[in-house]
Design goal:
39% of the residues lie in helices and 19% in strands. It is an alpha/beta fold. It binds ligand AR6.
Length: 170
């Protein structure tokens, strides 16, 4: 399977790119964003300052600096507000835009956290369905993306993603 889910700290993964669940400023924050900036070192923030922020649903790419990953793809997920404010479309766009950037930068292995599922409050089941659907579609259309890892915190998140992945037809 080119798509798989594991329970891990995403900052430890030696993949071509890890995805950051950032905010529109791209200047750091808590959660996975804080962990990525701590592990990558201050050079990451320096590069982020040059990017002019990022719109919700879009993504931007930087170097990985002190991370094992070569690149960080910063995407901005929607804040959950009940689901009728375009949240599903914006979250789907995060995955697609991240994968388009990956393709453009010869990234063959990429790891995603559960974008929007922390302080942004997106329900994990709904987010996992979108993440798996978008990544699966993209991988089918683009052979250059060899491996997509969902790097998750907690056994509950892992079980939810594994249930989604199990529904994909081989
Ligand atoms: N590795 C993998 N997953 C992680 C890690 C890690 N090291 N740390 C947290 N998670 P969140 P959001 C999980 O809140 O909801 C930031 O302040 C976490 O358990 O990091 O998109 C940004 O600057 C959760 O399941 O991102 C924004 O302001 C998931 O990653 C805002 O938070 C995402 O949680 C973005 O909120």
């Amino acid at each position: 399977m080119r798509l798989h889910a594991i329970e891990t700290d995403i900052t430890r993964l030696a993949v071509d790119a890890i995805v950051n669940a950032a905010n529109t400023s791209l200047l750091g924050g808590g959660g996975v964003d804080g962990a990525i900036h701590r592990a990558a070192g201050p050079e990451l923030l320096r590069e982020c300052r040059t990017l002019g922020g990022c719109a919700t649903g879009d993504a931007k790419i930087t170097g990985g600096y002190r991370l094992a990953a070569k690149h960080v793809i910063h995407t901005v997920g929607p804040v959950w507000n009940g689901g009728a404010s375009g949240e599903p479309q914006l979250l789907a766009s995060c995955y697609r835009r991240s994968l388009e950037l990956a393709l453009a930068h010869n990234v063959r292995s990429i790891a995603f956290p559960a974008v929007s599922c922390g302080v942004y409050g997106y329900p994990m089941e709904r987010a996992a369905r979108i993440a798996v659907r978008e990544c699966s579609r993209f991988a089918q259309e683009h052979d250059a993306i060899e491996r997509i890892t969902f790097a998750l915190f907690g056994s509950d998140a892992l079980a939810i993603y594994q249930a989604e992945l199990a529904q994909l037809t081989p």
